[in-house]
Automatic annotation (TrEMBL):
Residues 1-21 form the signal peptide. Residues 26-121 are annotated as: Disordered. SUPFAM superfamilies: DPP6 N-terminal domain-like (SSF82171). Keywords: Signal. This is Uncharacterized protein. The lineage of its organism: Bacteria, Pseudomonadati, Myxococcota, Polyangia, Nannocystales. Residues 30-119 have a biased composition (Low complexity). Gene3D superfamilies: TolB, C-terminal domain. It comes from the Bacteria.
């Protein structure tokens, strides 16, 4: 480990050296001087070391260029959504049909008629479930009667889940065959309406190697195989990149049956692979499995991996996964240090979208840079430069343009520090000036429009690691450093919260909400939840660096309900958590860095990488609200991933551009326009997913205003 450097002539690389600046890393990078690569030749995982998976011909390995990079050594099939890989019409176990089944569950019929006083409209059959087996589409004709008279050809039909299927003009329901699930079929005739449920279950079996015939009855439990990634009970959001399943204690050439099932999707694949044993779940199948789910708790994903070794077939090793029924908007900006990546530049900030499994080098200033933060609208990144000046000069980047360009503040030796945080509207920065003397470090407010200092000392000397709440009404920081040197080497600090006064640059009601106390380490790097009610923070044992031990914690902004996020940080090597810009699917989402092993891909490397955990909303009183985390695919696993900051994508300014929800648009409103959604202006009320100030703004009664957007209440 490097010792602390305080001699000015040696400070030009402080930001780039992982143990010296921005509070991080393992300290295994060699100081090789400005502009040179630190660290030994790359020891990144060699994809060729993974044996072939006969179920899929491709290896997931994102391209590397000046704008995109990432190493993913998964073995398996990654295809675009909509790719049909069905080999035939082999029926899944337990299904006695080879071409699809229609199940009439009329014993539990719904009330389908609406009596308006003039007559009763009825739909038949009721509550049907169609089984699509290996791509064989099964349709269902419907009839409608009014007071017993057939009016099928005269009613208006609709089905509310077009991704599952559609009702055609001849009253025949046709599944898409892509997604399973349940929806509502509605008929309207004159002033009467009737409805019933129509469900579709997808059953798919893939056996490209013809392995199933040799699959006999199990001889007993598997004596050795253990799944090392993902973790049991992991919660995933929609649209996140498919996981690479990884397992140990097996032999080359073993055969496998992987079975994933939930209420409306059943997927089986047979394959063989060598060690280290890994299988990348096909991207299209993962999307279909995810979006066919009905709720993270009510419809869990059953995962079973069964092995055949020699002539012995063993019982399956099982896990349960959970799928939150909402996407995770935004991207993670993180500081990458070279680690063992040969030829990689020292210290740069990258971005990565959890659903893309590919990192992006969005800006190249020509020097080492880091200690970044991002505005609430996702359009501006603030960072500091290691260009030979101390303190490190501050600058801002406009990431709404492509390629990104300098924003209002360019590197200026007269304006510097380390970490900072934007206020709610991106017009101000709260920054630690960090003069290499923690006792005298102060927080100041900077005008993000021109770089002028609006308040030179917001709290008192001895404060750093600032955070600003999404509503702009509170700040948080760590204060009470007792050591000289960098703030991130100070082993004494309290977590402090203060109210921002109406002038936007001064504070009042300063309060210690988490004292250092008698526990190991100290509070570090606080971050506010999107609804302003919680703060997540780490507690490292070596200042605020990621070199020692560390757990994650959650606390209310008044110091209430302090709890350890034990499931998320069970490795005791977890640091620097930040909330996603919105909660989604009934959960808060937190990205953090951890030095834990990543399955059998990174073992014993002790190298920090990005992970994401779901936090129950609301956090369960008195208990651990976190869940086992998942790995963010697309990082360079030979590098050190530091200081992750979750932010929305740069919002779209222009009207009529395609969007998914209001957070995508600077107006806050994504409006349905025919078959697509585009950015627009608010109508009489706010549709689901669009900006709001209160529940009264939202069009639908069951869609409350949460985190500034009308959010659907998704099933759990």
């Amino acid at each position: 480990m490097h010792s602390l450097r305080t001699v000015v002539p040696r400070l030009s690389l402080l930001l780039c050296l992982p143990v010296v600046a921005c509070g991080d890393s393992s300290g295994n990078v060699t100081d090789s001087g400005p502009g040179t690569t630190a660290g030994p030749t790359s020891t990144a995982t060699d994809p060729s070391a993974t044996g072939p998976t006969t179920a899929g011909p491709t290896t997931d390995s994102p391209p590397t260029s000046t704008t995109t990079l990432g190493t993913d050594t998964a073995t398996g099939t990654e295809t675009s959504p909509g790719t049909d890989t069905s080999p035939g019409t082999d029926t899944s176990p337990g299904t006695d049909s080879t071409d699809g089944t229609v199940t009439d569950t009329s014993a539990t019929q719904t009330n389908t008629g609406t009596d308006t006083g003039d007559g009763l409209l009825d739909i038949n059959p009721k509550d049907v479930t169609l089984e699509i087996i290996d791509g064989a589409i099964v349709t269902q004709p419907y009839t409608a009667t009014y007071n017993g008279v057939d009016v099928t050809g005269d009613v208006a039909w609709s089905y509310n889940k077009p991704e599952i299927g559609e009702i055609q003009l001849n009253a025949e329901f046709v599944p898409t065959g892509t997604l399973g699930g349940t929806g509502t079929l509605k008929a309207t005739y004159q002033a009467s309406q009737a409805e019933t449920s129509v469900s579709v279950k997808i059953i798919k079996k893939l056996d490209p190697g013809g392995l199933e015939p040799g699959w006999g009855n199990p001889v007993g439990p598997d004596p050795s195989m253990t799944i090392v990634y993902p973790y049991n009970e992991t919660v995933f959001p929609l649209k996140v990149a498919a996981p690479v399943v990884q397992w140990n204690n097996v032999q080359n050439g073993d055969q496998y049956k992987l079975h994933i099932s939930e209420q409306f999707y059943d997927y089986t694949i047979y394959f063989t692979t060598n060690t280290p044993a890994r299988h990348l779940i096909d991207a299209a199948e993962w999307i279909a499995i995810s979006e066919s789910g009905q709720g993270a708790q009510s419809d869990p994903i059953s995962f079973e991996l069964q092995r055949k070794s020699g002539n012995n077939v063993y019982e399956a090793v099982k896990q349960t996964w959970r799928m939150a029924q909402a996407r995770l908007p935004g991207r993670v900006y993180y500081w990458e240090l070279p680690g063992d990546c040969g030829g990689n530049a020292n210290g740069r900030v990258l971005s990565i979208k959890p659903q893309e499994a590919q990192a992006n080098e969005f800006f190249q200033p020509g020097f080492c840079w880091g200690c970044h933060t991002v505005s609430r609208d996702g359009r501006t990144v603030a960072a500091v430069a290691d260009n030979g000046n101390i303190p490190f000069p501050t600058f801002t980047i406009d990431v709404s343009q492509e390629p990104s360009v300098y924003a209002n503040i360019q590197p200026n030796p007269g304006l510097g520090g380390t970490f900072s945080a934007f206020n709610h509207d991106g017009t101000k920065l709260l920054q630690s000036n960090d003069p290499i003397d923690a006792i005298n470090s102060v927080l100041r407010v900077i005008d993000a429009m021109n770089g002028s200092i609006l308040n030179a000392n917001v709290l008192q000397p001895g404060c750093g690691e600032p955070a600003w709440s999404p509503d702009g009404l509170k700040i948080a920081a760590t204060c009470g450093y007792e050591d000289a040197g960098w703030t991130f080497d100070a082993n004494q600090a309290n977590l402090v919260v203060a109210d921002v006064n109406p002038d936007g640059i001064t504070v009042s009601n300063q309060k210690v909400i988490v004292p250092k106390g008698g526990e190991a380490g100290r509070p570090a790097y606080p971050n506010f939840s999107p609804g302003n009610e919680w703060i997540v923070f780490g507690r490292p044992t070596q200042g605020s660096r990621s070199t020692g031990s560390g757990k994650l914690f959650l606390v209310g902004t008044e110091g209430n309900d302090l709890v350890t996020l034990e499931k998320a940080s069970s490795d005791n090597k977890s640091f620097n958590p930040t909330f996603a810009p919105l909660r989604a699917g009934g959960y808060f989402w937190v990205v953090f860095m951890s030095r834990r092993d990543y399955g059998n891909t990174l073992v014993g490397a002790n190298r920090q990488q990005l992970w994401i955990t779901a936090i129950n909303d609301p956090p369960n009183a008195g208990g651990d609200p976190s869940n086992p985390p998942f790995y963010v695919r697309g990082q360079e696993d030979c590098a050190l991933s530091e200081n992750a900051y979750f932010a929305p994508d740069p919002c779209i300014e222009e009207p009529n551009k395609v969007c998914e929800s209001g957070i995508d648009c600077c107006s806050g409103h994504c409006i349905q326009m025919g078959e697509i959604k585009v950015c627009g202006e608010k109508g009489p009320c706010s549709e689901a997913g669009n900006a709001c100030e209160s529940d009264a703004d939202c069009c639908e009664p069951g869609t409350p205003c949460v985190d500034g957007y009308c959010q659907q209440i998704f099933p759990q």
